[in-house]
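It is time I had a proper look at our fold encoding. Can you supply me with one protein entry, sequence and fold together? It will help me judge whether the discrete encoding reads sensibly. Leave the record below and I will have a look:
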Amino acid sequence: MEKKETICCSAVYYDDGIPRVHMPRNIHTGIVVCGLRHNNCYTVMAELFPNREYLTNRTENQQGFLTSFNRFVSRGEAATIAFNAGQLENDYSARGIMSEDLW
């Protein structure tokens, strides 16, 4: 039986150009911080980067989700995955999902 990919948690991806190990499989540089809600991720980011450089360039700072296949995905892709996995009753892929839509 083929397992379906599901959404595990909220995540924020900051690409500072530094290669790191143990990141989601589709992330080659930067860091992904996970949490129940995106604000929890930002609390950890503030501790990791005290000068808040992760907020200076929005293109390097993306909100999304971590999947059960260890991938970082955008809000829109997460909506499609969650809907197809039965985690959502409605398809929010046009607007993307918020963590509150899931839990």
Summary: The chain has one domain: 7-102. The beta strands are 7-14, 31-35, 61-67, 72-74.
